[in-house]
Amino acid sequence: MEPLPGSIYSAAQVRAMDRHAVEVDGIPEYTLMSRAGEAALACLRRAWSDADQMTILCGAGNNAGDGYVLAARARSAGMHVSVMALTDPSRLQGAAAQAFAKFTADEGRHGAFDAAAAVASPLIVDALLGTGIARDVDGAMRECIEAVNAGGRPVFALDLPSGLDADTGLVRGTALHATRTLTFVGLKSGLFLGAAPDHVGTIEFAGLGLPDSVREGMAPVMTRLDADILADVLPARRRSAHKGEHGRVLVIGGRAMAGAARLAGEAALRTGSGIVTVATSASSVSAIVGRRPELIGVPVDTADELEPLLAAADAVAIGPGLGLDDAAAAFLDVAIACGKPLVVDADALTLLSRRPRRHDAWVLTPHPGEAARLLGSDTAAIQRDRLGAAQSLAAKFGGVAVLKGAGTIVCAPPATPRICDRGNPGMATAGSGDVLTGVVVALAATGIGASRAAAAGVWIHAMAGDRAAGARPRGMIASDLIAELRRGVNTPWS
Asked: How far is CA 89 from CA 34, 138, 421, 433, in A?
């Protein structure tokens, strides 16, 4: 299995790579298709090692050609293969027609789609549409996809689950739910955006042996976050180090919900901050410090009282449980003016949406609802174009925008946006965002810069969530993530 690349491209860019390989590098199109079929068989046999029969659904275009090559290779390997054609194979052209001719020349047989027979198969291969979808799925193709989804059988998608938009990850009418997707040549943005997390399953990659020259001059639309982000943000500590060297964090919040500020403060401690102070209301101090005495709780009633705390801090987080009254708004004003690295979350984002302004040294961490308020939009629109929303946030407000959710995006212009493909549904729980705020502000307090702190923080947070969830994400709470942070910031994640 090839490792997943870091770069993610548009569907048009990947098609251009294919053309370059054929027209410039002289690799026959059928050779690429044969490599795709061979890679698919290897992936299938690795993932479903005991599978000896399958049903391959073939549509039109090169995705169908990949399916016919796989069918021929699987039959040669002694597997029982049933091929169901949703499009008349006589309409195939080029390499796809060549693949079908080779399949039939080797005595391969095909028939029309039979829903009952398909869902009775122990494994279904999706070679229907791939990236070639140009309109919403309808008619017989839609009926096929819906029948397969209802059947509940494992689905192995070639290149992209059929019905999923290759650029946006949005469902075009309906889309297959794949157990595993093997994508070719380059990662497509539609594998990570929109509804993709609910459809792609485990993503694998086959580069088909294309030379690096096919990507020359192509700027990826996104890059994947991975463990490499931690290489120089978590250096080894000297034995003679003292707490003041590890970052002094100030969390401003907890006036409306004490628990939110406590989660952020404790996450900062577990990420490695030497000193964490929580500026909150007098009534919240005992609730915060009583359960976590390592936090320093300071009662603050006015913005003026924040000044010495801000002066002593290396980085500031504001928003978790802050409240939305006039005092909260004044706290945000002085936090912005302090000149320290700043992480803005929760209530502070709502306050910012009421009085927008730009700042170059902050990290904004909205969930889709908060992003909608900041951009004067609605949550559904944000989710339809998460990448565009993250870019708009950074353009409008400056600094670094972290759009949380399945596939959290870190946008820090002019750098290429980064996306996190880790995390799990168990993290969709109250307080998880407060934990992320604590992780990011702790890293920012070490002086590594807002962009690196945001990217590394998102990665550490996601991996802590995956460690905490294991195979049982249901019922996970935000504190479970905190318990995993210490492990994550001491041992590089793999």
From this structure: 18, 19, 37, 51
SS3 track for the chain: CECCCCEEECHHHHHHHHHHHHHCCCCCHHHHHHHHHHHHHHHHHHHCCCCCEEEEEECCHHHHHHHHHHHHHHHHCCCEEEEEECCCHHHCCHHHHHHHHHHHHCCCCEEECCHHHHHHCCCEEEECCCCCCCCCCCHHHHHHHHHHHHHCCCEEEECCCCCECCCCCCECCCCCCCCEEEEECCEEHHHCCCCHHHCCCEEEEECCCCCHHHHCCCCCCEEECCHHHHCCCCCCCCCCCCHHHHCEEEEECCCCCHHHHHHHHHHHHHHCCCEEEEEECHHHHHHHHHHCCCCEEEECCCHHHHHHHHHHCCEEEECCCCCCCHHHHHHHHHHHHCCCCEEECCHHHHHHHHCCCCCCCEEECCCHHHHHHHHCCCHHHHHHCHHHHHHHHHHHHCCEEEECCCCCEEECCCCCCEECCCCCHHHCCCCHHHHHHHHHHHHHCCCCCHHHHHHHHHHHHHHHHHHHHCCCCCCCCHHHHHHHHHHHCCCCCC
How many CA atoms within 13 Å lie on the side-chain side of 52?
A: 2
Question: Helix crossing, 478-488 with 432-444: angle to 10°?
Answer: 30
> What pLDDT, on a 0 to 100 scale, did the predictor assign at position 469?
96
CATH architecture of 7-221: 3-Layer(aba) Sandwich (3.40)
In order of 98, 284, 333, the CA distances from 279 in angstroms are: 70, 10, 15
Region 227-488: CATH code: 3.40.1190.20
**By the 8 A CB rule, do 145 and 162 touch?**
yes
CA nearest to 185, candidates 68, 63, 18, 42: 18
* Confidence band for 374, pLDDT divided at 50, 70 and 90: very high
Same fold, 7-221 and 227-488: no
Q: Where are the chain's structural domains?
A: 7-221, 227-488
Tell me, what amino acid is at 8? Answer: I
Question: Mean pLDDT, to the nearest integer, of 180-204?
Answer: 97
Whether the pLDDT of residue 250 is over 70: the answer is yes
- Rounded Cα distance between 195 and 451, Å, is 26
Whole-prediction pTM value? 0.94
| Spatial distance between the Cα atoms of 182 and 160, rounded to a whole number of angstroms | 7
Evaluate if residue 493 carries a pLDDT over 60: no
* CB-based burial label for 248 (10 Å; 0-12, 13-18, 19+): buried
